[in-house]
Queue: 3 jobs
Job 1
Amino acid sequence: MSDVGYLDSEALRCLQAYLPTNAGTTRADETISTSSPAAQPAASTTNPKKGLPFVTLTYAASLDSMIALAPGARTTLSGPETKAMTHYLRFRHDAILVGANTAAVDNPGLNCRYPEATLLDQPRPIIVDPNGRWKGIGKKAYRLAAEGEGKAPWVVTTSRTFEKKSRLHDIEGDYVIVDEQDSNGAIDWEGILRTLFVRGITSVMIEGGATVINSLLARPELVDAIIITIAPTFLGQGGVAVSPAPTTAPNSGERINAAWLDQPLWKQFGNDVVLCARLHK
């Protein structure tokens, strides 16, 4: 039996406008009024001109915008209601993506435990690992795939660190090679997303960690929706913060806001508050 409960109909109505329409199905207990504006799905799952998947950026943070007490410290922020929401979001996406540090430190299962979810409903775990840190063996995502409780991970890496012989292939996982770089010499997000789309991934739920989140907040053209769980707590100084790099106006060079949110919707889930929005392009 799943340790995750169903979302109620009101919670589902709030989420629908910010979700892709390709993955997951409406279950019998999910009664959603299609006449409600909040029940209308996103206009399209993908942009065929760009050839990119629908991207949902989602994470849990404290009131001081921290996602962990300290670097390398696994920190639980979501209550049971927002935990259920997270697994519902996983149910509605083709893939879950995290960075290599999150995969190594948090050791997430990267599977979906929403009630009645089958193996076919499971999202594809994707780990962005340009430096070849994540080996898989002994990790929860690897074990769940081997036991048939999740799909096998794909590891996004570069041709420089690609391992032709890997235990990842034993569970039908794979490597996704992306050699495009951004202006800072890091693996390029548009290159990652375009490659995933070519491989059949039409929607991606990006869960962290902070480096991944901050880099994508600076690329609003790549993000279709943002869903943030805000826990009623302060983690304090020295934590790991979601805070994108400073931004300056192109003409004056003056400091401006790093990111804006459009169409915000706030909903209380138990003791947590969830913010659904779109990044201003």
Job 2
Amino acid sequence: MIGSTVLTQAEADALIAMAKTFANTAAISIPPGADDTRELIGADRKERFLLDIWRSTFRLSKFRYQTRGRQVIVLVRLCIGGAPHTNPDGTRLPGTDLHLYREGYDDKWAQPLDAGQLQDTNDIWRTLEDFCAFCNVQGPPPFQAGFA
């Protein structure tokens, strides 16, 4: 096994599946160079999560969303338009992929997106809504248009 397993797979799966809401419902904007973190509150009110939102400064079609549990453990990461990724077994994926926590490997494994998993990866806001739905984050705040 590689990496430091902090969560069992069952614990990670439960955290991913747990309903989450935004602690702050201020509008989200994702301009070039965005690097924002939003706090999420778990349904049990004890668990806190973080949603990281990042966008490239120059390649505007390159962005990343990820949820973290326990402050530092990446549970799910969506990379759009990035560099190719190599999994621990040597398989390579193109620059758009989905990382799910895997016991013993943390977020080092990625998988291609399933057809229909995201409606339109060219639409940065729609992709955030789809990512939130995948991670069971309910009621995303409004999107502040004009920066996409």
Job 3
Amino acid sequence: MGRQQLPPQIRKLDVADRKTGKTAVRYQLTIDAGSDPITGRRRQVRRRFKTEREAREELGKIAEQAATDTFVPRKAVTVEQLCADWLASLHNARPTTVNAYRYSVAPLRERHGDLVAQKLTRPDLDRLLTDLREGGTTTAKGSTRRPWLPRSLNKAVDAWRAVLAYGVERRELSHNVAASMRKPPRVHQEMATYTPDEIRRVLRAADQDRSGHLWYLALSGLRRGEIAGLRWSDIDLDAGTINIVRNRVQAGAGNVVENDPKTLSSRRVLPLDDGLVGVLKRASARNAEERLSLGPAHRDSGYVAVNEIGEPYTPDTLTRMWLKLAKVAGVRPIRLHDARHSCGTAMHLRGVPLAVIAKWLGHADASVTARLYAHSQDDALRAAGQSLGVVVTSS
């Protein structure tokens, strides 16, 4: 069988080897790759290969990409530049969302930032994901990361996919090597909530705490950002209502952003019981005394969650204060957000309809509420077991 003739797009050349000076055979590929989607000009690709097989493989690859309008010319944009451009393109995202994405792509930028994006491979990403799961990767500041949990790993995969999809959209990449990455299975973690006895112990400790009114609000179902963003002008102590109209959220270390609630359902007016009205009246009076005592030195920011000179607490500061209170109260530490879940759980165990709990907590959909509070606490389970025992033994 005779040697297969070269296609017209491939020429066999005799060229001088740059290292040895000797004559070497090379195969030059010249092919029309279609029109540039931006300029409309025809694109011609010219590349050289050491072997005929390499030239033929590249010919088939480029011809297919040109036919399907997926051809992307070689570009020098790096992974770092692509990540930076993608983050800068998130015009409609909240600062907290952008910061979360920045956190998720940080390992990718640190390890492969200098790599030309077109040379990034699926194995590169798989190895990075494995290293993040096992722990020990180094941050840009030189610290060592702890092992990432499945939730953080899944967010990282989502962010990497989005970065590379952005590159494909911009014609920087021909395909998304993260598109088919498999996420680690999420491990279900039971929600941590306080029992009625623990809530009473926390509130007793709160009564001795200058910021105790904040913990009453937390156990009344307010989010951390809602507490941080609450102003005295949002509270009508005479009518006994509280108006949730804003969030103050942490967007990175030391950076706090105030914005509207994430959803329309998060904006809500809640009635206050007499006990909480009394707690808030005492806090308001104390704030007035501090303002009068300090005079011009008092910030008078108008926020409910402030220090002695009227400066608003950051959300992260509220978290640290909450954990200190738990220690004083002698109860197990749970997240500040779980104080809100403790409220929802207590309502559920008392038979409050899920639709009402959803309205109170500001959930957009009662199905979210049902999914969150379909569990029961250990004490309630024991009571259910005792009830079952009575039924069984008396039957």
